[in-house]
Amino acid sequence: DIVMTQSPDSLAVSLGERATINCKSSQSVLNSSKNKNYLAWYQQRAGQAPKVLIYWASTRESGVPDRFSGSGSGTDFTLTISSLQAEDVAVYYCQQYFRTPWTFGQGTKVEI
Amino acid sequence: QLQLQESGPGLVKPSETLSLTCTVSGGSMSTTNYYWGWIRQSPGKGLEWIGSIYYSGSTYYNPSLESRVTISVDTSKSQFSLRLTSVTAADTGVYRCAGHAREQTVVPGWFAPWGQGTLVIVSS
Protein backbone atom coordinates (compact mmCIF):
# COMPACT_ATOMS: atom_id res chain seq x y z
CA ASP A 1 0.00 0.00 0.00
CA ILE A 2 1.09 3.59 -0.58
CA VAL A 3 1.39 5.27 2.81
CA MET A 4 0.50 8.95 2.97
CA THR A 5 2.09 10.93 5.78
CA GLN A 6 1.01 14.48 6.56
CA SER A 7 2.80 17.11 8.57
CA PRO A 8 2.21 18.74 10.89
CA ASP A 9 -0.59 16.92 12.71
CA SER A 10 -2.00 20.29 13.71
CA LEU A 11 -1.21 23.96 13.31
CA ALA A 12 -2.58 27.25 14.56
CA VAL A 13 -2.58 30.18 12.18
CA SER A 14 -3.75 33.74 12.66
CA LEU A 15 -6.58 35.07 10.53
CA GLY A 16 -5.22 36.38 7.25
CA GLU A 17 -1.97 34.47 7.57
CA ARG A 18 -0.69 31.61 5.42
CA ALA A 19 -1.20 27.95 6.33
CA THR A 20 0.96 25.25 4.79
CA ILE A 21 0.26 21.53 5.02
CA ASN A 22 2.61 18.87 3.73
CA CYS A 23 1.88 15.40 2.43
CA LYS A 24 4.48 12.78 1.60
CA SER A 25 3.77 9.51 -0.19
CA SER A 26 5.81 6.35 0.38
CA GLN A 27 6.24 6.01 -3.37
CA SER A 28 5.83 8.33 -6.31
CA VAL A 29 2.29 9.08 -7.44
CA LEU A 30 3.45 10.72 -10.66
CA ASN A 31 2.36 9.12 -13.91
CA SER A 32 5.30 10.15 -16.06
CA SER A 33 3.64 9.33 -19.37
CA LYS A 34 0.72 11.62 -18.59
CA ASN A 35 2.75 14.05 -16.47
CA LYS A 36 0.05 13.95 -13.81
CA ASN A 37 0.30 13.48 -10.06
CA TYR A 38 -2.50 11.31 -8.74
CA LEU A 39 -3.14 13.27 -5.54
CA ALA A 40 -6.19 15.00 -4.04
CA TRP A 41 -6.76 17.25 -1.02
CA TYR A 42 -9.91 17.35 1.12
CA GLN A 43 -11.33 19.64 3.77
CA GLN A 44 -13.47 18.24 6.58
CA ARG A 45 -15.18 20.73 8.84
CA ALA A 46 -16.44 19.57 12.21
CA GLY A 47 -19.48 17.33 11.90
CA GLN A 48 -19.38 17.36 8.11
CA ALA A 49 -18.31 15.04 5.35
CA PRO A 50 -14.99 15.62 3.59
CA LYS A 51 -15.10 17.88 0.56
CA VAL A 52 -12.59 17.74 -2.28
CA LEU A 53 -10.56 20.92 -2.73
CA ILE A 54 -7.83 19.92 -5.16
CA TYR A 55 -7.18 17.01 -7.51
CA TRP A 56 -4.35 16.20 -9.92
CA ALA A 57 -2.26 17.77 -7.13
CA SER A 58 -2.99 21.32 -8.26
CA THR A 59 -6.39 21.53 -9.99
CA ARG A 60 -8.89 23.38 -7.87
CA GLU A 61 -12.39 21.93 -7.70
CA SER A 62 -15.12 24.19 -9.05
CA GLY A 63 -16.29 26.64 -6.39
CA VAL A 64 -13.22 26.32 -4.18
CA PRO A 65 -11.77 29.74 -3.27
CA ASP A 66 -8.51 30.60 -4.96
CA ARG A 67 -6.79 31.07 -1.60
CA PHE A 68 -6.45 27.27 -1.67
CA SER A 69 -3.64 25.97 -3.85
CA GLY A 70 -1.86 22.66 -4.28
CA SER A 71 1.69 22.04 -5.42
CA GLY A 72 4.36 19.36 -5.53
CA SER A 73 5.26 16.33 -7.57
CA GLY A 74 6.40 12.76 -7.16
CA THR A 75 6.32 12.08 -3.43
CA ASP A 76 6.11 15.55 -1.85
CA PHE A 77 3.06 17.75 -1.95
CA THR A 78 1.79 20.92 -0.28
CA LEU A 79 -1.61 22.46 0.33
CA THR A 80 -1.42 26.19 0.94
CA ILE A 81 -4.12 28.45 2.28
CA SER A 82 -2.83 31.87 1.36
CA SER A 83 -4.92 33.92 3.77
CA LEU A 84 -6.70 31.93 6.44
CA GLN A 85 -10.36 32.67 7.00
CA ALA A 86 -12.48 31.61 9.97
CA GLU A 87 -14.39 29.14 7.81
CA ASP A 88 -11.15 27.33 6.95
CA VAL A 89 -10.92 25.81 10.43
CA ALA A 90 -11.06 22.12 9.59
CA VAL A 91 -9.08 18.93 9.20
CA TYR A 92 -7.35 18.54 5.85
CA TYR A 93 -6.49 15.21 4.22
CA CYS A 94 -4.46 14.17 1.21
CA GLN A 95 -5.32 11.07 -0.81
CA GLN A 96 -3.44 9.19 -3.51
CA TYR A 97 -5.23 7.56 -6.40
CA PHE A 98 -2.17 6.30 -8.23
CA ARG A 99 -2.60 2.72 -7.08
CA THR A 100 -5.21 0.70 -5.23
CA PRO A 101 -5.89 0.53 -2.41
CA TRP A 102 -6.55 4.25 -2.49
CA THR A 103 -5.18 5.70 0.71
CA PHE A 104 -5.47 8.86 2.79
CA GLY A 105 -3.13 10.78 5.03
CA GLN A 106 -3.86 10.89 8.75
CA GLY A 107 -5.11 14.48 8.59
CA THR A 108 -3.89 17.91 9.65
CA LYS A 109 -6.02 20.00 11.97
CA VAL A 110 -5.99 23.73 11.22
CA GLU A 111 -7.05 26.10 13.98
CA ILE A 112 -7.10 29.83 14.49
CA GLN B 1 -26.34 18.51 -8.33
CA LEU B 2 -25.38 15.02 -7.27
CA GLN B 3 -26.35 14.07 -3.71
CA LEU B 4 -25.78 10.85 -1.80
CA GLN B 5 -27.48 9.58 1.34
CA GLU B 6 -26.62 6.53 3.42
CA SER B 7 -29.17 4.41 5.26
CA GLY B 8 -29.05 1.32 7.44
CA PRO B 9 -28.83 0.07 11.01
CA GLY B 10 -26.69 2.02 13.43
CA LEU B 11 -26.02 -0.95 15.70
CA VAL B 12 -24.72 -4.35 14.62
CA LYS B 13 -23.79 -7.28 16.85
CA PRO B 14 -20.32 -8.80 16.70
CA SER B 15 -19.97 -11.61 14.12
CA GLU B 16 -23.05 -10.39 12.24
CA THR B 17 -23.30 -8.59 8.89
CA LEU B 18 -23.29 -4.83 8.42
CA SER B 19 -25.56 -3.74 5.57
CA LEU B 20 -25.84 -0.18 4.28
CA THR B 21 -27.45 1.41 1.24
CA CYS B 22 -26.56 4.62 -0.52
CA THR B 23 -29.20 6.45 -2.54
CA VAL B 24 -27.99 8.74 -5.31
CA SER B 25 -30.06 11.70 -6.45
CA GLY B 26 -29.58 14.63 -8.78
CA GLY B 27 -28.02 12.58 -11.53
CA SER B 28 -27.81 9.20 -13.18
CA MET B 29 -25.71 6.39 -11.72
CA SER B 30 -25.24 5.03 -15.21
CA THR B 31 -22.54 7.50 -16.09
CA THR B 32 -18.98 6.94 -17.22
CA ASN B 33 -17.84 9.81 -14.99
CA TYR B 34 -18.15 7.97 -11.70
CA TYR B 35 -17.60 4.86 -9.80
CA TRP B 36 -19.49 4.72 -6.50
CA GLY B 37 -17.54 4.19 -3.35
CA TRP B 38 -17.68 3.41 0.35
CA ILE B 39 -15.27 4.95 2.84
CA ARG B 40 -15.25 4.62 6.59
CA GLN B 41 -13.79 6.83 9.26
CA SER B 42 -12.80 5.87 12.76
CA PRO B 43 -10.57 7.50 15.38
CA GLY B 44 -8.12 4.66 15.21
CA LYS B 45 -7.81 4.22 11.46
CA GLY B 46 -8.70 7.62 10.03
CA LEU B 47 -10.19 7.53 6.53
CA GLU B 48 -10.21 4.06 5.02
CA TRP B 49 -11.44 3.26 1.52
CA ILE B 50 -13.57 0.11 1.54
CA GLY B 51 -14.49 -0.45 -2.09
CA SER B 52 -16.01 1.03 -5.23
CA ILE B 53 -18.40 -0.13 -7.93
CA TYR B 54 -19.17 0.94 -11.49
CA TYR B 55 -22.72 1.04 -12.79
CA SER B 56 -21.94 -2.09 -14.80
CA GLY B 57 -21.09 -3.96 -11.61
CA SER B 58 -17.31 -3.87 -11.95
CA THR B 59 -15.71 -3.53 -8.51
CA TYR B 60 -12.54 -2.60 -6.70
CA TYR B 61 -12.10 -3.69 -3.08
CA ASN B 62 -9.55 -2.85 -0.42
CA PRO B 63 -7.51 -6.05 -0.02
CA SER B 64 -7.56 -5.61 3.75
CA LEU B 65 -11.35 -6.05 3.72
CA GLU B 66 -11.96 -7.93 0.49
CA SER B 67 -12.70 -11.29 2.10
CA ARG B 68 -15.60 -9.75 4.04
CA VAL B 69 -16.94 -7.09 1.65
CA THR B 70 -19.53 -7.15 -1.10
CA ILE B 71 -20.66 -4.02 -2.93
CA SER B 72 -23.62 -4.21 -5.30
CA VAL B 73 -25.49 -1.72 -7.47
CA ASP B 74 -29.11 -1.30 -8.51
CA THR B 75 -29.26 1.49 -11.05
CA SER B 76 -33.05 1.17 -11.40
CA LYS B 77 -33.33 2.34 -7.79
CA SER B 78 -30.33 4.69 -7.99
CA GLN B 79 -28.76 2.77 -5.12
CA PHE B 80 -25.62 0.89 -4.29
CA SER B 81 -25.06 -1.21 -1.21
CA LEU B 82 -22.37 -2.40 1.15
CA ARG B 83 -22.26 -5.72 3.00
CA LEU B 84 -19.51 -6.38 5.53
CA THR B 85 -19.59 -9.77 7.18
CA SER B 86 -18.24 -11.05 10.50
CA VAL B 87 -17.96 -7.61 12.02
CA THR B 88 -16.00 -6.84 15.17
CA ALA B 89 -15.60 -3.75 17.32
CA ALA B 90 -12.82 -2.68 14.95
CA ASP B 91 -15.47 -2.10 12.28
CA THR B 92 -17.15 0.63 14.35
CA GLY B 93 -17.07 3.99 12.65
CA VAL B 94 -18.80 6.47 10.39
CA TYR B 95 -19.54 4.94 6.99
CA ARG B 96 -19.90 7.26 4.03
CA CYS B 97 -20.75 6.73 0.42
CA ALA B 98 -19.29 8.95 -2.26
CA GLY B 99 -19.02 9.48 -5.94
CA HIS B 100 -15.63 8.21 -7.07
CA ALA B 101 -14.70 10.50 -9.92
CA ARG B 102 -13.28 9.06 -13.12
CA GLU B 103 -11.59 11.67 -15.28
CA GLN B 104 -8.97 11.04 -17.93
CA THR B 105 -8.24 7.61 -16.46
CA VAL B 106 -9.62 4.10 -16.60
CA VAL B 107 -9.65 3.75 -12.83
CA PRO B 108 -11.41 6.27 -10.56
CA GLY B 109 -9.57 8.88 -8.56
CA TRP B 110 -10.86 11.34 -6.02
CA PHE B 111 -14.09 11.16 -4.03
CA ALA B 112 -16.78 13.75 -4.64
CA PRO B 113 -19.43 14.35 -3.54
CA TRP B 114 -19.79 12.56 -0.21
CA GLY B 115 -22.83 11.54 1.77
CA GLN B 116 -23.18 12.85 5.29
CA GLY B 117 -22.34 9.47 6.73
CA THR B 118 -23.93 7.06 9.17
CA LEU B 119 -22.43 5.94 12.45
CA VAL B 120 -22.30 2.17 12.83
CA ILE B 121 -21.48 0.74 16.23
CA VAL B 122 -20.56 -2.90 16.59
CA SER B 123 -21.61 -4.06 20.04
CA SER B 124 -23.62 -6.76 21.69
Describe the structure.
The complex is a heterodimer of chains A (112) and B (124). Chain A is mainly β and 112 residues long. Chain A has no helices and 13 strands. Chain A is globular and about 40 Å long. Chain B has no helices and 11 strands. Chain B has strands at 3-7, 11-12, 18-25, 34-42, 46-53, 59-61, 69-74, 79-84, 93-101, 111-114, 118-122. Chain A binds chain B through residues 34, 36, 38, 40, 42, 48-52, 55, 61, 93, 95, 97, 100-107, and chain B through 46-49, 60, 62-64, 96, 98, 101, 103-104, 107-117.
- What's the alpha carbon Rg of chain A, rounded to whole Å? 13 Å
Helical/strand content category of chain A: mainly beta
Beta-strand percentage range of chain B: over 45%
Count of beta strands of chain A: 13
The chain-level mean pLDDT of chain B equals 95
Strand content of chain A: over 45%
What share of residues of chain A is helical? under 10%
Weakly predicted, low-confidence segments of chain B: none
Structural class of chain B: mainly beta
Number of beta strands of chain B: 11
The major β-sheet of chain B equals:
7 strands, mixed
Structure annotation, total helices of chain A: 0
Low-confidence stretches of chain A: none
Question: Average pLDDT across residues of chain A?
Answer: 97
| End-to-end Cα distance of chain A | 34 Å
